[in-house]
Amino acid sequence: MPETPLDQLIKRLSRLPGLGPRSARRTALFLLKNRDQMMLPLAAEMDHVGRHVRVCVECGNLDMQDKCSLCLDGRRDQSRLCVVEDVSDLWAIERAGIFSGLYHVLGGTLSALDGRGPAELGIDRLVMRAKSLHKAEDRQPEVILATSATVDGQTTAHYIAERLEAQGLTITRLAHGVPVGGELNFLDDGTLAQAMKARTAL
Q1: 99 lies in which domain range?
Q2: Strands of 170-173's sheet, edge to edge?
Q3: Residues 106 and 157 in one domain
Q4: Is residue 49 part of a domain?
Q5: Tens-digit pLDDT string for the chain (202 aa)
Q6: Which pTM was predicted?
Q7: Residues 31, 96 within the same domain
Q8: Which residues contact 172 (CB under 8 A, 6 or more apart)?
Q9: What is the C-alpha separation between 106 and 33, in angstroms, rounded?
Q10: How many domains does the chain contain in total?
């Protein structure tokens, strides 16, 4: 028996992160029951986004133009560059309102198993961008390595730090440790070890 368009929609939805076959069926049914309010507007928006959203040629962010609004914003600190793995990491930092410099999206981490080496992540382009950072009056240009605390994330950060070592830049890494509101007895050993190493004076 051939697949119906509905079967194909459910199969496609089940490939989305966080959706299995059951969740995909529920989502498809919800959309069909609300086709005028949800399904058709959603389809139109997805078509529009798919056709017009581009990857920023400078930093790798997503926007409707070749160079994203963050890169075009002359008010941002041109002496600091925050390196992240994915666009979702960039969005998280922007949402928190904790950084006003420039970004560089790697598009993943170094992983021999997945066939991602320095060339696939465009590390050479990152090195060129880091070289062109403007000097601030009170500090050297800074590259902040905001990769994840996974093995691949740590490996990627160390590799980038080695490549940038001779550039005379300040290279920093996000701190890891006890989260705000976290209780010690619920933390894993690795997080506790990082928190102990990164302890600061009161």
Answers
A1: 77-173
A2: 102-105, 80-84, 142-145, 170-173
A3: yes
A4: no
A5: 778 999 999 999 999 999 999 999 999 999 999 999 999 999 999 999 999 999 999 999 999 999 999 999 999 999 999 999 999 999 999 999 999 999 999 999 999 888 999 999 999 999 999 999 987 667 789 999 999 988 899 999 999 999 999 888 999 998 888 777 877 787 788 778 877 877 766 6
A6: 0.85
A7: no
A8: 142, 143, 144, 145
A9: 40
A10: 2
